[in-house]
Design a protein that fits this description.
six-stranded mixed beta sheet; 11 helices; binds P-hydroxybenzoic acid; alpha/beta; binds adenosine-5-diphosphoribose; 21 strands; D-Amino Acid Oxidase, Chain A, domain 2; 35% helix; eight-stranded mixed beta sheet
């Protein structure tokens, strides 16, 4: 027999979306149980994205977790676009009234949120995969999950599907009630983490004849770099020397700048995908983060979109418990879909601007577009606004 528990909000997934939702709800006195399929160390050690928009930084402060971020996060007020052997600095802050981004690894965000949850003693179960989500159109949706004592039942008022692209939550919604929009790309990113002091204070996005490359960082001693590659790339064919020589070729500029080399401590290949689910809820199941949408990493939007979702969802749930009103719950999806499409548009634009196809016509056109971008203050302002992102509270609904 299954053992049953009850909570107000059942949260499936302890990535940044699920953990932040739990934090936001707990600060408003709302109970939640977070279920995570993987182990705590797996979740904390996963190397993922690393650019926080201003609004995500503000949210971390708002939930009382800005301390380590302020201490070790790297504030960036600009970035470089490199092409034709030259680096062009885009002054993000000048173009956006002083806004900036923060380089702070996603796993650091996850670590801060887990530490806070564990310190508060609130339920967060690792190695506890949700196996089914049911009764979502009734008043008491439920999650069945496994832990080391067997099958368990969690009865909820609401369920938040924060279980990423490969989770089960999206699949719990009848396919006839969902519209999926998707695009895959004929390339991927080979990413490395290296013990090498960053040789630029700011990120460098480069379009080179041999393909895209990105120079980023995690700390004053650790660089994070990416190369455009084939989606079927076998890492065994990429020894460290080959990676460094390709990175150097694609990133080095005529002013003598090049990435500093160092010991490579981690390598991976990440596929690129654009994906949107509409709507982002069904009955009392609400999807948030990668469960609802995926953007290619070129615009650095994935983590920030997830944070915007759970910020919006927490406000809607708080309104419900405080006043019984469902206005914000009713517009959760429309506002999220709108934000997701704007992020899709920007991420697609950056991806297609900076990745090499096998057609030289495209390459020449991309160079002309980049030239246009860096020589037009209006184009830079639009790029910068999109890159640093908008406030989470500035969302409006679709009036379609
Ligand atoms: N039961 C419980 N947990 C699950 C299940 C399940 N059946 N399926 C998946 N999970 C967990 C995964 O193990 C993962 O820890 O859900 C979590 C989802 O986390 P993420 O994939 O990190 O997704 P999300 O929280 O939406 O984060 C947004 O932004 O930068 C991007 O892709 C990057 O992960 C990042 C995302
Ligand atoms: C990263 O540092 O991991 C990173 C930075 C910018 C991106 C994507 C990833 O666009």
């Amino acid at each position: 027999m299954s053992i049953a528990q009850r909570t107000q909000v059942g949260i499936v997934g302890a990535g940044p979306a699920g953990l932040m939702l739990g934090r936001l709800l707990s600060l408003q006195g709302i109970d939640s149980v977070i279920l995570e399929a993987r182990s705590q160390s797996h979740v904390i050690d996963r190397v993922r994205a690393g650019v926080l928009e201003q609004a995500t930084v503000d949210l971390m402060h708002q939930v009382g977790l800005g301390q380590r971020l302020d201490l070790v996060g790297l504030r960036h007020e600009g970035l470089y676009l490199a092409f034709n052997g030259r680096r062009h600095r885009v002054d993000l802050s000048a173009a956006t009234n002083g806004r900036a981004i923060m380089v702070y690894g996603q796993h650091e965000v996850v670590r801060d949120l887990i530490d806070a949850r564990v310190a508060s003693g609130l339920p967060l179960h690792f190695e506890a995969p949700a196996v089914s989500i049911s009764d979502i159109t009734g008043r008491h949706p439920r999650v069945d999950y496994d832990d080391d004592s067997g099958r368990r039942v969690l009865n909820c008022d609401f369920i938040a599907g924060c279980d990423g692209f490969h989770g089960i939550a999206r699949g719990a919604i009848p396919s006839s009630a969902l519209q999926i929009y998707e695009r895959t790309y004929p390339f991927a990113w080979l990413g490395v983490l290296a013990n090498a002091p960053p040789s630029s204070h700011e990120l460098v996005y480069s379009l080179h004849e041999r393909g895209f490359a990105l120079f980023s960082m995690r700390s004053p001693t650790v660089s994070r770099l990416y190369l455009q590659c084939d989606p079927h790339t076998d890492l065994a064919e990429w020894p460290d020397d080959r990676i460094w020589s390709e990175l150097t070729e694609r990133l080095a500029t005529d002013d003598g700048w090049r990435p500093t080399e160092g010991e490579i401590t981690q390598k991976s290949v990440t596929a690129m995908r654009s994906f949107v689910t509409e709507p982002m809820h069904h009955g009392r199941l609400y999807l948030a983060g990668d469960a609802a949408h995926i953007v290619p990493p070129t615009g650095a939007k994935g983590l920030n979109l997830a944070m915007a979702d759970v910020h919006r969802l927490s406000q809607a749930i708080v309104e419900f418990y405080q006043s019984g009103r469902t206005d914000l719950l009713n517009t959760y999806s429309a506002r999220g879909v709108r934000r997701a499409w704007r992020a899709q548009a920007f991420s697609w634009r950056m991806t297609s601007l900076l990745h090499r196809t096998d057609n030289d016509f495209d390459y020449r056109r991309q160079l002309a577009e980049l030239e246009d971008l860096v020589s037009s203050p209006a184009a830079i302002a639009s790029f910068a606004e999109n890159y640093v992102g908008s406030d989470f509270s500035s969302e409006t609904t679709f009036s379609a």
